[in-house]
Amino acid sequence: QLQLVESGGGLVQPGGSLRLSCAASGFTLANFQIGWFRQAPGKEREGVSCRGSRDGSTFYVDSVKGRFTISRDSAKNTVYLQMNSLKPEDTGVYYCAAKSTIIRLCALSESQYNYWGQGTQVTVSS
């Protein structure tokens, strides 16, 4: 059974850091495009960052560029989202998603992704 499980969310003060993890079971993340999405209260879910299949390209939306970093640990079959200099507007439920593809370019179109995690809450507040 293919499954994604996020962890690492929590409450952090503005300017702080968190590292989200997305652990996969039932498949090898290296052969999948991975996306991180978030949904703030009362808002639609939006894409944050993605990484292409086989360690392909990475992409960040402007609002997180320079602050967030997506990476992968093949030994742990886990993808991470390192989030630094967090702002209150980064608050939301963060989801990882995966799409089986050989394409090394990535995109943040939700409809492309086949598998989704359950989400982890990130709250940035003083």
Give the arrangement of secondary structure elements:
Elements: E1 3-7, E2 10-12, E3 18-25, E4 32-39, E5 46-51, E6 58-60, E7 68-73, E8 78-83, E9 92-100, E10 115-116, E11 120-124
Parallel strand pairs: 2-11
Antiparallel strand pairs: 1-3, 3-8, 4-5, 4-9, 5-6, 7-8, 9-10, 9-11
Question: What descriptors fit this protein?
Answer:
126 residues; mainly beta; seven-stranded mixed sheet; 48% strand
Give a verbal description of the structure:
- The protein is mainly beta and 126 residues long.
- The protein contains no helices and 11 strands.
- It has strands at 3-7, 10-12, 18-25, 32-39, 46-51, 58-60, 68-73, 78-83, 92-100, 115-116, 120-124.
- The strands form 2 sheets. Strands 2, 4, 5, 6, 9, 10 and 11 form a 7-stranded mixed β-sheet that branches. The protein has a 4-stranded antiparallel β-sheet with strand order 1-3-8-7, with no helix packed on it.
- It is globular and about 40 Å long.
- The N and C termini lie far apart (40 Å).
